[in-house]
Amino acid sequence: MKTVKDLFWESSLEEMKNGYKTESSGNVFTCIFCGKQFEKGVVYPENGVYYEAQKAISRHISQHHGSVLSQLLGMDKKYTGLTELQKKLVDAFSKGRNDISVLNDIGGKSASTVRNHRFSLREREKQAKVFLAIMELMNEAKANLPVPVPVPAGAKMVDLRYDITEEETAKCLKTCFPQGLDGPMSEFPSREKRKIIVLRHIMTRFEAGRIYSESEINLILMKVWDDYVTLRRYLIEYGFMKRTADGSKYKVRIIMEKNNG
Q1: I want to staple 56 with a disulfide (CB 3.0 to 4.6 A). Which of 29, 51, 181, 238 is the partner?
Q2: How confident is the model at residue 208 (pLDDT cuts 50, 70, 90)?
């Protein structure tokens, strides 16, 4: 189960600004500061007034956490990168305080001191935007790089078909297993890379190194696809399984990591 800390750091920039995270289904709103949830379609009473979920969680945040800004400013410097003085200045600027008023609070000697702080914060904002762009581009580039793909010990030819990215894997499995990864397969792909992705996933339903009878293999594969005979043949051809000479026993091969050297 995810902790509140997990919820907070997994939030997008927009969710962090709102103070709540929207579940993938779009039906549940979760406070990233305490984990309290509000479900879409449910009304929440408060002092004789009924609020829908999104409005209710916004009121929850303002009533129990002050404001999103105050919560974020209250975080440790290692997370915000702001000194105590800078936090105080951000809070004052957010309230529209003028430079003279702010100057009195921080004990400065000249209004230029406050102007310098404003300039410094704007520069930090620019740097943060560039840094976010850099990190997003880095993560996008990583997602499109070929990753070491587990290769069955019995595979006779390891070529570019095994250069499969995480993005390709996720997309293929979502298409071929629309009811979920533990459900049945809707189609068997014709492209070689996709065949390997699907066969590798099917192998997660077997125990590595175990010897199965043909009937045991068939029972497992029947839950994957109606044409279990074709699946069984492909698993043997691609080296995921080894069949005994009399065809009565099947051994699940140990999956080996691809050697990139």
Answers
A1: 51
A2: confident
